[in-house]
Amino acid sequence: MDGARASARFGPLLAGLTAVAVCLGAWQAIAALGLVSNLIAPPPSAIAASFPALIAEEGLFPRFAQTFAEAFIAAGLAVVVGTPFGWWLHAKRWAGRAYESWVATFAAAPLVLLYPLFLVILGRNAGTIIAMSFLTAMPAVVLKTKEGLDGIRPVLVNVGRSFGLGESQLFWKILLPASVPTICNGVRLGLIYALISVVGIEFLINFGGLGELIDDLAQRWETAMMYGAISFVVLTSMCFFYLTEKLERWIRPG
Amino acid sequence: MSPAAASALVVDGVTKRFTTPDGALTALEDVSFAVRPGEFLALIGPSGCGKSTLFNIIGGLTGGFEGQVRVDGAPIDGAHRAIGMVFQEESTFPWRTTLDNVAFPLEVAGMGKTERYARAKNLIKLVGLDGFENRYPAELSGGMRQRTALARTLAAEPRILLMDEPFAALDEQTRLLLGDRLLQIQQALKQTTLLITHSIAEAVQLADRVVVMTYRPGRVKRVFDIDLPRPRNSEIVSSAAFGHYVAQIWNDLREEAAKGLDESEAIARRTGQH
Ligand SMILES: Nc1ncnc2c1ncn2[C@@H]1O[C@H](COP(=O)(O)OP(=O)(O)O)[C@@H](O)[C@H]1O
Ligand SMILES: [Mg+2]
């Protein structure tokens, strides 16, 4: 690879990392100069140093596993229910006209405020967390599925019909692959929303994984560890985003 | 043999009306012509005269018309195995490589991988895309993508090749060269071909006969026999006979094209006044 291509490829990545490094450096400097209390904003070095304790004493990994498992289940349910629902909104034009804007409204509603209701119905347990996160994740999946199917160029369907494809072959060989990029975006958004929702509700109802841990650390004024746990959530979801992109390329190249 | 059976494809009294917000629109009116086995017929008309509508009707994708389309004497009802379609718009599957695009009809017909790839590779060579088997459409030029679509249609071994302005989106030089390629293929496969086009030069370069259509409602205005020697290639465009045919057809078509132009200007004026 020659220099120009290497810089075209790694340039943006490098620029992004530089920006992060500059921000962290500035933060470190401000903390070192004593401009803000280390109790409120501990320097990045202290946050990094908190990880061994987070792992050994606060059970970071099992909590991480619990949070992500809940997010996965919620997002998985959202996909299982949301994609057929999106397909239905696409296939039945009257249904699309009747319900699409309702789903969009639902997506914009702050569902998290309903947590007392879910606590009463389902109790303070993983069920409440999964149910609420499922509802939070679903609209994105529904809307993106419909958008993907609506956006298929009619000529691609005509090609299939001219080759005599039946309805199910049309779906599997043309409609699905043609809409996969948009549907994958919906699934990815659903996962992110589910994760945010799981952490948020864990935090609110003081139950389970990373959300509860963050709340707990805040109560004990373990701010370095608290920021450590938060950065861990952010970093893992970034890795995760990257992996889903790779997965999508693999499912549907081109 | 009855006269009807002597034709590979017969379009018999086809009329198609659309209901639009502005009322009924007659896109095609009593269109009739026949294509002989192995013949290369070009159908030419101004934009909006109903060519694509007729293409979709013959291909069995549009119903609700009067009249009949017959293949080997039997009226068609939906997509017909004997007819292969090449569309005007970009129609390759972006998620498939050239090889998998071309093998598509064989794959859905249930043919095994080794055999369908072997056949697809032959067709890829035929359209001059060898070396690009594993590229995705996004990595190919417009002309290469259209050749991929052509090879994909040929893979289903249609007896009648039906094309709707397949080269319309390409530049003039590419169009001439792809025309040559198409002629070679058509002569090698002895394929009955119906090419829809708005380019007079393309029609004369390629066809045995040219059907000229009127502008809205689309009717058959005249049929020209193109008596140029075969095998032909694009060098023919510099011959006197070629120029003569082009002039004759333009003479007929000018009036129709002008009607189309007037109408689109009238529409522009109307919508401009809103
Ligand atoms: N589905 C449709 N509904 C209403 N009008 C249509 C439809 N399809 C085509 N038309 C109209 O029929 C006429 C012929 O269109 P088309 O067959 O695409 O022409 P061409 O391919 O010759 O440019 C145009 O006026 C177009 O607006
Ligand atoms: Mg057209």
Give a short synopsis of this structure.
The complex is a heterodimer of chains A (254) and B (274). Chain A has 254 residues and is an all-alpha fold. Chain A has 11 helices and no strands.
Rough shape of chain B? globular
- Percentage of β-strand residues of chain A: under 5%
**CATH level 3 topology of the largest domain in chain A:** MetI-like fold
Low-confidence stretches of chain A: none
Low-confidence segments of chain B, given as residue ranges, are: none
Count of individual domains of chain B: 2
Helix/strand-derived category of chain A reads mainly alpha
At CATH level 3, the topology of the largest domain in chain B is Rossmann fold
Strand content of chain B: 15-25%
For the biggest sheet of chain B, the summary is: 6 strands, mixed
The helix count of chain A comes to 11
Separation of termini of chain B? 60 Å
Oligomer classification: heterodimer
The CATH architecture of the largest domain in chain B comes to 3-Layer(aba) Sandwich
Order of helices and strands of chain A: HHHHHHHHHHH
Radius of gyration of chain A: 22 Å
Model description:
The complex is a heterodimer of chains A (254) and B (274). Chain A has 254 residues and is mainly alpha-helical. Chain A folds into 2 domains: 1-36; 42-251, MetI-like (MetI-like fold). Helix content of chain A is 83%, strand content 0%. In chain A, helix 4 packs parallel to helix 7 (126-150), helix 7 (126-150) packs antiparallel against helix 9 (167-205) and helix 10 (210-219) runs antiparallel to helix 11 (223-251). The model of chain A has no long low-confidence stretch (mean pLDDT 88). Chain B has 2 domains: 9-82 and 159-271, P-loop containing nucleotide triphosphate hydrolases (Rossmann fold, 3-Layer(aba) Sandwich), CATH 3.40.50; 89-157, no CATH class. In chain B, strands 6-7-8-3-9-10 form a 6-stranded mixed β-sheet, with helices on both faces. A 4-stranded antiparallel β-sheet of chain B has the order 2-1-4-5, with helices on one face. Chain B has helices at 51-58, 98-102, 104-108, 113-126, 142-155, 172-189, 200-206, 240-273; strands at residues 9-20, 23-35, 40-44, 66-71, 74-75, 83-86, 160-164, 192-197, 209-213, 220-225. Chain B has 274 residues and is of the alpha/beta class. Chain B is built from 8 helices and 10 strands. Chain B is globular and about 55 Å long. The mean pLDDT of chain B is 89. At the A-B interface, helix 8 and helix 9 of A face strand 6 and helix 3 of B. Bound molecules: adenosine-5'-diphosphate (ADP) and magnesium ion. Magnesium ion is lined by residues 51-52, 88, 164-165 of chain B.
